[in-house]
Amino acid sequence: MFVFTILGSSMLLVSVYMYEMFEVSTYQGSIGRPAIINQRPIIGILAEEYFENKNSQAPNGSHIVASYVKMVESSGARVVPIFIGKDLAYYKNIVNTVNGILLPGGGVDLWAEDGYGKAADIIYNLVLNANRNGTYFPLFGVCLGLEVLGVVSAEMSRTVLVDCKGVENIALPLNFSDDYRSSALFSGTPQHIIDSLKTNITSNHHSKCLTQASLYENNLTETWKVTSTSGVRGDLKFVSSMEHVEFPHIFGIQFHPEKVPFEWYNKNNDPHDFNAIVANRWFYDYFVDLARRNDNSFSNKQKEESSIIYNYPAIYTGGYFQQIYRFQYSDSASTNLISVVSQQ
Ligand SMILES: *[C@@H]1O[C@H](CO)[C@@H](O)[C@H](O)[C@H]1NC(C)=O
Ligand SMILES: *[C@@H]1O[C@H](CO)[C@@H](O)[C@H](O)[C@H]1NC(C)=O
Ligand SMILES: *[C@@H]1O[C@H](CO)[C@@H](O)[C@H](O)[C@H]1NC(C)=O
Ligand SMILES: *[C@@H]1O[C@H](CO)[C@@H](O)[C@H](O)[C@H]1NC(C)=O
Ligand SMILES: *[C@@H]1O[C@H](CO)[C@@H](O)[C@H](O)[C@H]1NC(C)=O
C-alpha cells in the first residue's frame, strides 16, 4: 500500500508536470518557435567605440561591457565578440557562424562612421535576410540596442529617437500592452515574473528613447509590436519592450537586466533583491533559448576556440561599468574573427 501511495503521488506529479510542459510547448508552437536543435549556443555580442573620457574626440579602439557577457554565459551560452569597423564579408561570416546576436547598451553616436550603429545596421539587414531565407536567427537589443533597432529599421532615420529625460538611474515597472500575452516575448513568461515586472524592478539608464508616436511617425508600427511601455510622467511613456512583427525573435528592451546581478557602481540605484534578480534573468534566458533553435557553427573547433571571449581578459575598472573587455584595431582588415587583439 505504501509503495502504491508513493507511486500514485509521483505519477500525479509527473502528469501535472507533463500537463504544464504540454501547455507551454503548445503555446510556443502557436507562435512559430521551432524545435530546440542546439544545446551549445554561441552568442555574438557587438563591441562599441571606446572613449578614454567624456571629452575624447575620437574613439580609442572598442570595448564590450562584461556584465552582458556574464549574463549571456549564465543563461547557458558562450560569447564571441563582434568587432566594429569591419567589412560586409566579416559580418556575413558572423551571422552564418553564431546562433544569435546581442546588441548591448552604451553611449555612442549611432551615425558615426565605422562604429556600432553602422555595424548594427549591417547586422540587422543580414539577420532579416537570413530569417527571410528560412534560417531562424534571433537578435536581441538592450537599451542602446533597442534604440538602434528602431533607427536601423527606419533606415537610419534621426527622428525615431526622442529625448527621454528623467529616466536616468531609476527603477521602473513595465506597463504591459493589452495583448502582451500574445507576444512571443511574454507568451511563456511565468506569472510570478510578470507580477514582479509590474513593480519598480527594471533598471533604466537612458536619455533617449522610442515612443509609440516616434514609431508611428517613422512608419514603424507595422514593423514593431510594442509589448510594454514605462514612464515617470504622464506625458512621456517610452517603449520598454518590443518585438519584430514578422520575426518576433528580433526584439529589444530599454532596461538593463544585466545590471541587476552584475553592476555595483555605488551611485547607481539598480535593484539587487531576490525578485529583481529572478525576473530580470528571464530576458536573457529567453534569448539564449531562442538561440538553441539555430544550428550555425564554426567551420572547425580551432576557429571556435580562438574566437570565444575567453581569449580576452576582463579589466576591472571600479567605475560605472565594473569590468570591461577592451579591443584595439589590428593592422589587418581580414575577415578572421580574431583580427583584433586585446590590449593586454
Ligand atoms: C589608447 O589605448 C591604449 C591601450 O590602452 C593606450 O596605450 C593609448 O595611450 C590610448 N591612446 C589614447 C590617445 O588615449
Ligand atoms: C539564401 O539561401 C540560399 C541557399 O542556401 C543562398 O544561396 C543565399 O545566399 C541566401 N541568401 C541570403 C541573403 O542569406
Ligand atoms: C499603462 O498603459 C495603459 C494603456 O495600456 C494606460 O492607460 C496607463 O495610463 C498606463 N500607465 C502608466 C503608468 O503608464
Ligand atoms: C516606483 O518608482 C517611481 C519613480 O521613482 C515612484 O514614483 C513610485 O512611488 C515607485 N513605486 C513604488 C511602489 O515604490
Ligand atoms: C508606410 O508603410 C506603408 C505600409 O507598409 C507603406 O505602404 C508606405 O509606403 C510607407 N510609407 C513610407 C513613407 O515609408
UniProtKB/TrEMBL annotation:
Keywords: Hydrolase, Secreted, Signal. It comes from the Eukaryota. It catalyses: (6S)-5,6,7,8-tetrahydrofolyl-(gamma-L-Glu)(n) + (n-1) H2O = (6S)-5,6,7,8-tetrahydrofolate + (n-1) L-glutamate. InterPro entries: Class_I_gatase-like (IPR029062), Pept_C26_g-glut_hydrolase (IPR015527), Peptidase_C26 (IPR011697). Residues 1-18 form the signal peptide. Pfam families: Peptidase_C26. The keyword Secreted applies. It is found in: Secreted, Extracellular space. The active site is at residues 143, 256. Its EC number is 3.4.19.9. Belongs to the peptidase C26 family. This is folate gamma-glutamyl hydrolase. It comes from Nesidiocoris tenuis.
